[in-house]
Amino acid sequence: MTGPDTSYPRAIGLVVRREFLAQVRTKAYRWSVLLMSAAVVLASVIFGMVDDDGPATADVAVVGPGTTAVAEQLPVAARAAGLDVRVQTGRDPQGARAAVEAGIVDAALLRTGDGPDEVLVRESLDPQLGAALTEVVRTEALTRAVGTDSAAVLGALGESAFTVRALDPPDPQQGERVRMAWVSLLLLLTTVLGFGVYVAIGVVEEKSTRVVELLLATIRPSQLLWGKVIGIGASALLQVLVIGAVALVAGRATGLITLTDTAVAVFAATLIWSVLGYLLFSLLYAAAGSLVSRQEEVQGVTAPLMLLAMLAYGLSIGAIGDPGGTFARVAGWIPPFSAFVMPIRTAAGAATGWEIAGAAVAMLLACALVSRIAARVYTRSVLHTGSRLSWRAALRG
């Protein structure tokens, strides 16, 4: 076999073009993009139509003058709005605040008797409960003003308004962040599992048809490896861009997300981590594919990689629930788990700039190490036919 005489970058570019076109021209690729885009639009419409009706029941502490009247009227007014309210009395203002902080009650109405009342909530006041409180407070104010002149009645109505104070105000974009975290996670999982397997299948297909022998007559194994990984990766990135753009437009149209700096930053983070995650896994998939010679052996040789990806997926689901917790912070630094966890932490706003940069550097170093291992395995086993090679045998040569 004559030595390769094609320039290294140009040879990789030729393989990239070949692999990219081979992917995007298939009906399976086009249908997958179309169906996933349609699924994103359908999910956006469904979630956009589902209203948050708030809690079915609520506990309210009432403190101050007129407690008895409010305690009698509030459940009736709330029931008309489809809400079951249980009123608690007998607390002082400090006790009512403590009850709100502890989650014992959903809200506390602090009545002053000579000015606007105050409603304490932990995060936000449920609209139905707020409407019921407004009705009761105004009714009670009118009752006290009966028999006085019209000016006194108007004054009582003016004083009946209450202010709402949240003890732990929520992030107004929290819901949007969670939705984008889920979209990011699903896109990443699709990229890693779907296109990583394509890399392994492509390697085995070239081995089984002896095409790889013709290719390696003119280019090096490392050129073929990187061309295949980058070419299929480019088609994966195109799919992520299309589906991500559809998700942003559909989410904006249905009111699920707003095209703010947060959405743009999350989408950019998704692209970056999708590339890094795909790069690491696809190199491993290519090396794994080179160990076997038949298509029916692909599933067995790639099963450990699929389990690793699913483990990372499971860890990232846990990070959605507590993105700022110790578990998520630690997992965000460990490749390949960081490829799944860091987009979630970024979407939730729980990751600092130095954490994102540090995790990205760690992931790049992991990719560099994996690329050396994968290139070694691929080079030594891609021309092997017959029985399946083990990782140890391929590494030892």
TrEMBL record:
Question: What is any one of the record's Gene Ontology cellular component terms?
Answer: membrane
**Name assigned to this protein:** Putative ABC transporter permease
Transmembrane residues, as ranges? 28-50, 180-204, 225-251, 263-288, 300-320, 326-344, 356-375
Cite the GO molecular-function annotations of the record: ABC-type transporter activity
ABC-2 type transporter transmembrane domain span: 30-371
What PANTHER family has UniProt attached to this entry?
A: ABC TRANSPORTER PERMEASE, ABC TRANSPORTER PERMEASE PROTEIN NATB
Q: Which UniProt keywords apply?
A: Membrane, Transmembrane, Transmembrane helix
- InterPro entries (UniProt xref): ABC2_TM (IPR013525)
Native species of this protein?
Nocardia farcinica (strain IFM 10152)
Localization: Membrane
